[in-house]
Amino acid sequence: MRTMRALAALWLAAFCLAAQAQRELPDFTRVVEEQGNAVVNISTTQAVRRSGALPQVPGMEDEEVLEFFRRFIPRQPGPGQPAPGPRPESRSLGSGFVISQDGYVLTNAHVVEGADEITVKFTDKRELKAKVIGADKRTDIALIKIDATGLPAVRFGDPSKLKVGEWVVAIGSPFGFENTVTAGIVSAKGRSLPQENFVPFIQTDVAINPGNSGGPLFNMRGEVVGINSQIYSRTGGFMGLSFAIPADVALDVQKQLKEKGRVARGRIGVVIQEVTRDLATSFGLDKPRGALVNSVEKGSPADKAGVEATDIILSFDGKTVDASSDLPRIVGSTRPGSTSTVEVWRKGAAKKLSLTVGELQEDRVASADKPRPQKPAEAQPANRLGIVVAELSAEQKKEMKIPGGLVVTEVKPDARASDVRKGDVLLTLVHKGQHTELKSVDQFNKLLAGLDKNAVITLQVKRGETMAFVTISGLTDKG
Length: 479
What we know:
The protein is an alpha+beta fold and about 475 residues long. It has nine helices and 29 strands.
């Protein structure tokens, strides 16, 4: 009898748990019913400029690349073969969503790029022509306008309140299948992607495919928290990694596009790199954080404010810089002409500087990384780093516009400084927050001789026209 009662109790408990689990499963129907009508399909027509030129799929030029970030927008030739006379046309499919009842629509910049004609299609089969108000390639946001009123519009939520693991829903037109609904969870926040310095992406596992570009990402309250923009794929199709532009970034961009037709971003004129654990140790920082300044552009806002190469920027305008990728986003979102406070870590101590933010212009082409011809002095034996260095002549210093430094003439096969290259010019040695400018071979070797075998040091290196910091963990035995 006791056994039967125990079994009955266990069965009842299991039933209750199952019922509770069923009640807790997400229901996306309300979100779709309330917000689905505000999501649109976007098709574009673009005249092919060269006769016989084949339509291209962005990001598909090199199929040998195993892993890459890809814009997902299909481009397909029009029906039938192009006639000899008229110019052929290519069509692209994407998604978008209405943000105001008077016809403003948000989508991705790459969806409408180069379009001669844009058609917006609603769930009720209405098709309306649209014009581009403005597009911003750096964030991949475009604002377009249709001539209509009384349209269903989305509500926006606060992406900063999103939690990793929270359910989210995407609505779009993958492969042209209009108003397709897919769901998943937030996988991560604040993701930095290659060549995308101004967007802290929301990563999800929501199924996103070609045609979802520009579509909204909703939270469970039916609020737009992001715009689906990119996928990470080896095949061009969904593989569980999708990335959305946060709604607050999109709203700031669209406001500027609506008011001025362009986006104004701040710049301060520094080249930065990530602070690794070894770099933090050699600079005397408590943990890896901030953005290490490789070089400062002459005459730039940073230069005028007194920012120096080897500074680590810890915060900007009151916002903490946890990783180097945070700095471009924070500076970029700061209005040009405004005054900001920059906190830097310099020679083992924090220091605050006042800076007037400049304006970011068109993309600049980086100088070619070509080593300058060197005329090294008499060769020296390899030091504890396994490299051979020589002193620069006065002519070389004048040509490179530097007061001192040592040129690397040889890197031994077993060198501890394996990231150092022949032709590099070593400018500074950093150890436990102490910065020492390198002036002579004898001085450099004495510095190395005085260090423990397990010491972690950082070298400031001039390589062609660029600056870099190379960290070395451990030295060879003294001998």
